[in-house]
Amino acid sequence: MTVGENGNPDVRLVDVTKRFDDVVAVDRLSLEIEHGSFYALLGPSGCGKTTTLRMIGGFEQPTEGEIYLGDAEVSSLPAYKRDVNTVFQSYALFPHLSIFENVAFGLRRRSIRGQTLTGQVNEILRLVGLEGMGKRKPSQLSGGQQQRVALARALVNKPRVLLLDEPLGALDLKLRKQMQLELKGIQHDIDITFVHVTHDQEEAMTMADKIAVMNHGRIEQLGTPTELYETPATAFVAGFLGVSNLIPGTVSSSDTVQLRRGPEVRVRPEALQGRTGEVAVGIRPEKIALGEGQSNTLDGTIVEEAYVGVATQYIVETACGRLTVYRQNASPGLNGASPGQRLTLSWSPDSTFVVDSLEGPE
Q: Where are the domains of the chain?
């Protein structure tokens, strides 16, 4: 684990709880965020991710628990005394000030003047792709450019941690995807820890090194984008990060599961992690082949077909329920499958994950 100069993670939460009257928004949450990482808090509305971010930033005080920035415990400190800056979805720029003065605002408050101020502002404007635009007003910029000004204003103070509260939510889809890659590049260049709150799983997976998937005020699973997608630990994570086919079954040996109303399928032994009894077998849609060829098979009938650009989506009715299958549109006329067609689906044991029974408690 990479840590800050003092040997501690940049952010550490220890058993942090936040209650609003009788509602528990964050429930005994503990996490560590390494120095220089791009860390995402991902989850649906009401999962506690924004409240967690606001507690790190000092906009909310925890009901219980401790918050550390480096080796300093900051739970009781107000926002302006914490070495963090926040970029909000609304940008919150000063409309009457030029872009240069918007970015310089924090530096002036710290009594930085003259060539030092000018040099730092121009350097950060260059970094975010706004070189030469310092004299413009916010109203003369596009939404994406305004977002970059907000980013520059936060970064120019070189905070220990930059907090991003759904910062791309107001942008259109194409610009949002472009800014995702630019934000990742900027974070890599400046080596400042970013903590990013989003409900958009694709956005989190594009930008973050580590993702904490939150549900009901707790971390459901923590890992890299690859770990969360390929080996989700729960049905919630499997369903929240992309489309997932989940089939109920019963563990029948160290590497097999008997599907309910279906055949026995093989899984990697480590996928079971010692589970016995009722489980659910998971397969991502793009891992399933239309036709035989892999060792796990299931017969079905295509009931729906939809062309979605990069792939064609098929809904296949099987004895175990309806499964979603993606087949990449690698060349025209490749697929050939159509509604009403009977076929065998197949997939590899290596592409199969296992989560706890769908009937169990949340």
A: 11-230, 243-356
pLDDT tens across 103-132, in order?
A: 999 899 888 889 999 999 999 999 888 999
How far is residue 325's CA from residue 328's CA, in Å, rounded to a whole number? Answer: 10
The residue with tokens 């550490």 is: 12
Cα–Cα distance measured from residue 287 to residue 353, given in angstroms and rounded to the nearest whole number: 11
CATH architecture of 11-230: 3-Layer(aba) Sandwich (3.40)
Bridge partners (DSSP) listed for residue 324: 315
Query: Which tokens go with 20?
Result: 């609003």
CB 39 within 8 A of CB 196: yes
Q: Report helix, strand and coil shares of the chain as percent, to nearest 5.
A: 30, 35, 40
Written as six digits, the tokens of 154 are 């936060």
Q: What is the CATH number of domain 243-356?
A: 2.40.50.100
CA distance 328 to 234: 27
Strand residue runs (E) in the chain: 11-20, 23-33, 38-42, 64-69, 72-73, 84-88, 161-165, 193-198, 210-215, 218-223, 245-253, 256-259, 264-266, 278-283, 289-290, 296-307, 311-318, 321-328, 342-347, 352-356
Nearest to 286 by CA among 252, 316, 244: 244
Side-chain half-sphere exposure of 219, counting CA atoms within 13 A: 19
pLDDT tens digits, 130-151: 999 999 999 999 888 998 999 9
Sign of CA dihedral 84, 90, 95, 99: positive
CB 99, CB 136: distance < 8 Å = yes
